[in-house]
Design brief:
The chain has 174 residues and is mainly alpha-helical. It has helices at residues 15-21, 25-37, 59-73, 86-103, 123-131, 134-139, 144-155, 164-172, and strands spanning 46-49, 54-57, 76-79, 82-85.
């Protein structure tokens, strides 16, 4: 039996499983956003089935997406003084819930660890990259080819990564 998802005759019997996925659904949502922003997935990777009116993944796109989700679930997060993978956190939270159900306590904290979602390609960093002169770039250790690629990425309407040392230097510029 679930708390959020009630078992009804037409539903499956995994109501509690559906409840457990709710606090961590953002991991998949974030993976979907990342997949489209990074062009790992695009509209041409889907096809429409007229039989059941659903969109389906092409097999190779499905594998690319699964790899992206696997990477997200294997990423580390600081929790109770250690760095753990998200799949380990989910397992621990499921065990906390089972102990709470068995012992009759309500000591389940799904709020921690909280995700730290920081974009490294925000508008402020894009503006700084585009305004950066060659001499300024040289002063902070950015070569000509790196500056060229950063500008190209900053102009594009897609997400991109900026190495932390480079980002720190860019953020220090006024």
């Amino acid at each position: 039996m679930g708390y959020l998802h009630e078992f009804i005759g037409c539903q499956t019997k995994q109501s509690l499983v559906y409840d457990l996925q709710e606090p961590f659904g953002w991991l998949v949502d974030l993976s979907v956003i990342q997949a489209f922003e990074s062009k790992t997935l695009d509209l041409h990777d889907f096809y429409f089935t007229g039989d059941d009116y659903r969109y389906r993944f092409e097999p190779d796109a499905r594998q690319r997406f699964i790899d992206l989700i696997r990477e997200r679930f294997n990423s580390g997060v600081s929790y109770k003084g250690r760095v753990l993978r998200w799949d380990t956190i989910i397992e621990q939270k499921a065990m906390e819930l089972s102990r709470a159900l068995i012992n009759g306590t309500s000591a389940v904290d799904f709020a921690t660890p909280s995700p730290k979602l920081e974009r490294v390609d925000g508008q402020d960093i894009r503006t700084k990259i585009l305004a950066l002169t060659s001499s300024q770039a040289k002063q902070i250790g950015i070569g000509r080819s790196t500056l060229h690629h950063l500008r190209k990425k900053a102009k594009a309407n897609r997400s991109f990564n900026v190495y932390s040392a480079t980002r720190t230097e860019l953020q220090s510029l006024s």
